[in-house]
């Protein structure tokens, strides 16, 4: 089984649309939506949830008021401003807490206990393109990469159980923990970029990261014709640095039209972008076989 | 007045809008780039920073003096930032959340706190505004303390605009907290709508007033308008979808350079619309 | 001398786990007797972060003097090095092959971490 990851550094470059399009070309495959903070792949692939698993990470304090003597030691020791004393008794502010446990460990009355923190859910679902594993992180929860890791592990297990040859992952934006979690150990990655100042900047950062992790990657320039000079600049940068270009996709409002109808661009097989994506798919076949 | 510009989804135009708002307002303002993983505002402001400040957190240092290898510090650390080898303690500063728990737990006072760099703040003069960007060092994952220190540079008076990181996780919440108002930027697609809903859910949970700017508004705009009406969210502005805007943006030109007529709309948004909403909600 | 091998299972017949911090198990192989003891890595597998550090501490406490694994990140490497545990990296498939190479002196001691530490 091979794992292909689609990433972009910058949000909005077209990662999810490309993932969904590739999924329909690779069908049946297994899908993993690793963008757990703003998971969108399910909007295109309309999964039917088969299994839902709660996700816990880190710990959170709970104050046992029967034991609390209002000494406010917890308040004075907390460095995150996560204990409020504006109320009669100390109150705990979930959004500010980093789960260090100092309040509980140092409470002279043992009035604070640390409990596992519920941070979201992950799901195994069926879609027309194959089984999909996706997740939802609760608002304000820490996106440490652990949930991404759980999604990938589950997706790999599904791929093995179903005997699928390809796992297709939609990656998170940025260059932090979740991206690193999504990237380590994949067989190949496609970096989707767009010809803009930010697109170029973020592509360089994610390419640096991918290289650090020895991931075999190529670049896809989306909306290439919006700014041909910038596209040429990206192509030249890639060439100078020995980075392969898997293909370019022209800007087409059909992407938005398809999205609004809950379809992927491959439902319009004769369209220019669909043809471009087909060529990209043929191009990367040898990487993932 | 402090206003955060956020969106559940990346790539909807947060940075573009933040910069354009900062540029449109007369009388100056401060723009904070809180997207410390991928700060982009400075790409659109010419020149090198006139000031740079290191961002440091405190981490423990093992002083070697009198450790009996009891291991209390290691057990107290919930971030696996410490490892004990006999009567020695190894510190991994990049794992540390600076809670101070290990120092409190050590009965022999062999740990002390020392500064550790995680990134920097960069100050630049923009066109009519001051830009302060938080830049996290590549390879670090401590966005919240960087954002916290960035926000310490908020001037006591005047307008402050904060470009928030995408998503609804802790760094976004850290950015929008204690703002007077949050502008949510979205686009009229099912992705935009879905991520807007997540952002609204998050803001309602922490009781922050918000309004919506619909970027790239085209004939599908009803999707967002209908949701906003249903959810009781004010639509502050619609920025039309035009290919020349997309092209201008891709060349690095600001929104106001491509669409000078938006300047007046932005002023109205900041000077009239938002104060009116806050007043109506009894928050002003 | 005891050697810790990262393994996907509980015997030398099973595939090696190429990861250190997130390895399923450690097999503690006794060079003198040939006996194999299984050391579960459950705690590190469940850790939100710092699996490599925890796993390395676990290995150090087990009394192993050497580690044979596929890859080793910088934090785990630092703990092992400070504790005087030698690290050998190999692409060997199973435990038997790894030990054969080790005994033949064909495994080279690593002088640095070979991968960026992180989630895998």
TrEMBL record, chain A:
Keywords carried by this UniProt record: Iron, Iron-sulfur, Metal-binding
Source domain of life: Bacteria
CDD domains from the UniProt entry: SIMIBI_bact_arch (cd03110)
GO molecular function: iron-sulfur cluster binding; metal ion binding
Positions of the 4Fe-4S ferredoxin-type domain: 59-85, 88-117
Entry keyword Manganese: no
Name assigned to this protein: MinD superfamily P-loop ATPase
Species the sequence originates in: Oligosphaera ethanolica
From TrEMBL, chain B:
GO terms of molecular function: iron-sulfur cluster binding; metal ion binding
Keyword NAD: no
InterPro entries the record matches: 4Fe4S_Fe-S-bd, 4Fe4S_Fe_S_CS, CobQ/CobB/MinD/ParA_Nub-bd_dom, P-loop_NTPase
Keyword Cell membrane: no
UniProt protein name: MinD superfamily P-loop ATPase
Pfam short name (any one): CbiA
UniProtKB keywords: Iron, Iron-sulfur, Metal-binding
Lineage start: Bacteria, Pseudomonadati, Lentisphaerota, Oligosphaeria, Oligosphaerales
Stretches of the chain forming a coiled coil according to its record: none
Boundaries of every 4Fe-4S ferredoxin-type domain copy: 58-82, 87-116
Automatic annotation (TrEMBL), chain C:
Highest rank taxon of the organism: Bacteria
Dinitrogenase iron-molybdenum cofactor biosynthesis domain ranges (all copies): 15-103
Residue stretches spanning the membrane: none
InterPro entries recorded: Di-Nase_FeMo-co_biosynth (IPR003731), DiNase_FeMo-co_biosyn_sf (IPR036105)
One Pfam family named in its UniProt record: Nitro_FeMo-Co
Name this protein carries in UniProt: Fe-Mo cluster-binding NifX family protein
């Amino acid at each position: 089984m091979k794992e292909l990851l689609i990433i972009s550094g910058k949000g909005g470059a077209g990662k999810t649309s490309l993932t969904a399009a590739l999924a329909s070309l690779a069908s049946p495959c297994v899908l993993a939506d690793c963008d757990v903070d703003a998971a969108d792949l399910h909007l295109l692939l309309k999964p039917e949830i088969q299994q839902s698993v709660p996700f816990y990470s880190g710990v959170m304090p709970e104050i046992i008021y029967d034991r609390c003597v209002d000494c406010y030691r917890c308040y004075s020791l907390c460095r995150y401003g996560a204990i409020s004393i504006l109320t009669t008794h100390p109150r705990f502010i979930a959004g500010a807490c980093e789960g260090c446990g100092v309040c509980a460990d140092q409470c002279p009355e043992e009035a604070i206990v640390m409990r596992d923190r519920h941070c979201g859910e992950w799901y195994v679902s069926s879609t027309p393109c194959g089984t999909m594993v996706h997740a939802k992180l609760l608002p304000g929860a820490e996106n440490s990469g652990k949930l991404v890791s759980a999604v990938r592990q589950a997706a790999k297990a599904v791929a093995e159980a179903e005997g699928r040859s390809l796992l297709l992952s939609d990656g998170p934006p940025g260059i932090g923990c979740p991206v690193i979690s999504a990237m380590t150990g994949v067989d190949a990655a496609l970096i989707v970029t767009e010809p803009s100042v930010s697109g170029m900047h973020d592509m360089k950062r994610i390419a640096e990261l991918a290289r650090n992790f020895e991931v075999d990657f190529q670049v896809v320039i989306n909306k290439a014709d919006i700014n041909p000079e910038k596209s040429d600049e990206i192509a030249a940068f890639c060439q100078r640095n020995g980075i392969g270009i898997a293909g370019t996709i022209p800007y087409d409002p059909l992407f938005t039209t398809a999205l609004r109808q809950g379809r992927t661009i491959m439902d319009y097989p004769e369209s220019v972008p669909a043809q471009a994506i087909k060529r990209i798919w043929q191009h990367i076949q040898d990487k993932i076989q | 007045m402090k206003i955060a510009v956020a969106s559940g989804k990346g790539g909807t135009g947060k940075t573009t809008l933040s910069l354009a708002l900062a540029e449109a307002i007369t009388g100056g303002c401060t723009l904070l780039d809180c997207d410390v993983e991928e700060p982009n505002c400075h790409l659109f402001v010419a020149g090198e920073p006139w000031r740079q400040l290191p961002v440091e957190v405190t981490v423990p240092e093992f002083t070697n003096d009198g450790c009996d290898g009891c291991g209390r510090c290691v057990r107290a650390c919930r971030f696996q930032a410490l490892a004990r080898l006999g009567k020695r303690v190894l510190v991994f500063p990049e794992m540390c959340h600076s809670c101070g728990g290990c120092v409190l737990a050590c009965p022999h006072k062999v740990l002390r706190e020392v500064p550790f760099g995680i990134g920097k703040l960069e100050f630049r003069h923009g066109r009519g505004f001051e830009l302060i960007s938080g830049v996290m060092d590549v390879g670090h994952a401590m966005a919240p303390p960087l954002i916290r220190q960035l926000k310490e540079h908020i001037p006591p008076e005047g307008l402050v605009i904060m470009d928030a990181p995408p998503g609804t996780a802790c760094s976004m919440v850290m950015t929008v907290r204690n703002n007077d108002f949050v502008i949510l930027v979205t686009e009229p697609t099912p992705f935009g709508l879905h991520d807007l809903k997540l952002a609204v859910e998050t803001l309602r949970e922490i009781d922050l007033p918000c309004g919506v700017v619909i970027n790239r508004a085209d004939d599908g705009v009803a999707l967002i308008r209908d949701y906003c009406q249903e959810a009781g969210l004010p639509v502050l502005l619609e920025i039309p979808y035009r290919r020349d805007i997309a092209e201008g943006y891709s060349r690095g030109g600001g929104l106001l350079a491509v669409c000078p007529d938006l300047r007046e709309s932005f002023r109205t948004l900041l000077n009239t619309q938002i104060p009116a909403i806050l007043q109506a909600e009894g928050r002003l | 001398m005891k050697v810790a091998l990262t393994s996907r299972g509980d015997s030398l017949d099973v595939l090696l786990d190429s990861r250190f911090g997130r390895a399923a198990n450690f097999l503690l192989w006794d060079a003198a007797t040939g006996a194999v003891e299984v050391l579960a890595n459950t705690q590190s597998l469940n850790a939100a972060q710092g699996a490599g550090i925890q796993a390395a501490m676990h290995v150090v406490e087990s009394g192993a003097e050497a580690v044979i694994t596929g890859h080793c990140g910088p934090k785990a490497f630092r703990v092992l090095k400070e504790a005087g545990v030698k690290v050998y990296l190999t692409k060997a498939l199973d435990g038997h092959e790894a030990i054969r190479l080790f005994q033949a002196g064909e495994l080279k001691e690593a002088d640095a971490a070979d991968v960026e530490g992180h989630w895998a």
